[in-house]
Design brief:
The structure is a homodimer. By secondary structure, the first copy, chain A, is mainly α. Chain A folds into two domains: 61 residues, Homeodomain-like (Arc Repressor Mutant, subunit A, Orthogonal Bundle), CATH 1.10.10; 142 residues, Tetracycline Repressor, domain 2 (Orthogonal Bundle), CATH 1.10.357.10. Helices cover 77% and strands 0% of the residues of chain A. Chain A has nine helices and no strands. In chain A, helix 5 crosses helix 9. The radius of gyration of chain A is 21 Å and the shape is elongated. The N and C termini of chain A lie far apart (74 Å). At the A-B interface, helix 7 and helix 9 of A face helix 7 and helix 9 of B. Chain A binds a DNA duplex through helix 1 and helix 3.
Chain lengths: 204, 204
DNA sequence: GTCTATAGGATGATAGAC
DNA sequence: GTCTATCATCCTATAGAC
């Protein structure tokens, strides 16, 4: 009876270790990718940062590509889900844009390194991962665009070129990850309020 | 007399060729860097795109690093000069911000690839080039920040956190280069007007 | 699960013929 | 100024001992 139990416990620990070890690698690699970019970081760099040898990494991941893919797909899904939640709501375009700004800030707080990879290294994805991420990005932008167009049509947004509005807001939100040190001192809720105010009402 | 003349002419052509050849390399490389990033582009890639062999590149440039440095320093100086011109003017903070938005659009039109390198590959610069570019970037941001603070103090800008305003505008302007295809169809002056309107007056 | 050793190929750069 | 040949080093990834 004890034997059976300890067998299961050991198996559970093994699975747990293996999975957290992979997560450790992904976490360490994401920091390096953010600093120097995917292509400039070698498996030796990642291994060194974990106090191990490059060959040992391959017991936990299939290769460098899997690290990038895990990193990017994870946060891309996060954004897709958040956008779908907003789209499903029955509220005004302005309210939806506020929600988008808020979830971008929330996701950036926990996924800064993933966002760096999504923004700067998506083109180094391969095969179906590349197609999937590009598709998610296109759908995301299309949803955002439709909200803006609706807002203009209803006369609740100023009639500027929709692409200019989309691009202005989105490029600010997408590069929020670069701003984490300065943000660190700022309360997230204050940041959200200021960001909504600046992006919606302008600065004048 | 003819001999002397043709000697000078040949020398001039030689200097001209050498310099335009270097410019050609820088131009071709900048396109590749923009697509895949500095680290993912090899000297063989650059050579192939010019229908020559990698070794031949070294007759015109000292190495890969010189290409990056040329590319980045050039556009960094462009931004620094433009900002200094604006700072020297005696006009309101709002007027200065409008000018900044406008010269960002102008520079982006001619230097899209350089800006990509400045944004994404500056960390691969070495030695004094790295220090110089980082310094120019810090000074640039500090100038922008002082304009914003003055605008808030004078009560002409809404009293949002200055860093939020700085970051929102700057991140939009810095990623304009990503937007060149869509912009291509739009008149530059209309883009400037829309951009100024969206960034200053907001969208609501 | 980590190590050493190494395969197999790419990389930045140089030497020297033409 | 471009080429071929090559160097020395780095890269991702695998094989196999422990």
């Amino acid at each position: 009876m004890y034997d059976g139990l300890s067998g299961w416990v050991l198996f559970f620990i093994f699975v747990l270790m293996k999975s957290t070890r992979k997560e450790e690698i992904v976490a360490v690699a994401s920091g390096l990718f953010k600093e120097k970019g995917y292509s400039a970081v070698s498996m030796r760099d990642i291994a060194q940062a974990m106090n191990m040898k490059a060959a040992s990494l391959y017991n936990h991941i299939s290769g460098k590509q899997e690290i990038l893919s895990t990193l990017i797909v994870r946060v891309a899904i996060e954004f897709t889900n958040a956008m779908e939640t907003v789209m499903a709501e029955e509220s005004s375009p302005i309210n939806k844009i506020e929600k988008i700004i808020e979830f971008h800030i929330d996701i950036t707080v926990t996924y800064a390194e993933n966002i760096a990879a999504l923004n700067n290294d998506w083109m180094h994805l391969e095969g179906t991962d590349l197609k999937r991420v590009v598709k998610m990005r296109e759908d995301y932008e299309e949803n955002f665009r439709s909200i803006i167009k609706q807002g203009i049509n209803e006369g609740r947004l100023r009639p500027n070129h929709p692409e200019v509005i989309l691009f202005s807001i989105l490029s600010t939100l997408r590069t929020l990850y670069l701003w984490n040190e300065k943000r660190g001192k700022m309360d997230v809720n204050i940041l959200k309020k200021d960001m909504v105010s600046v992006l919606l009402k302008g600065i004048v």
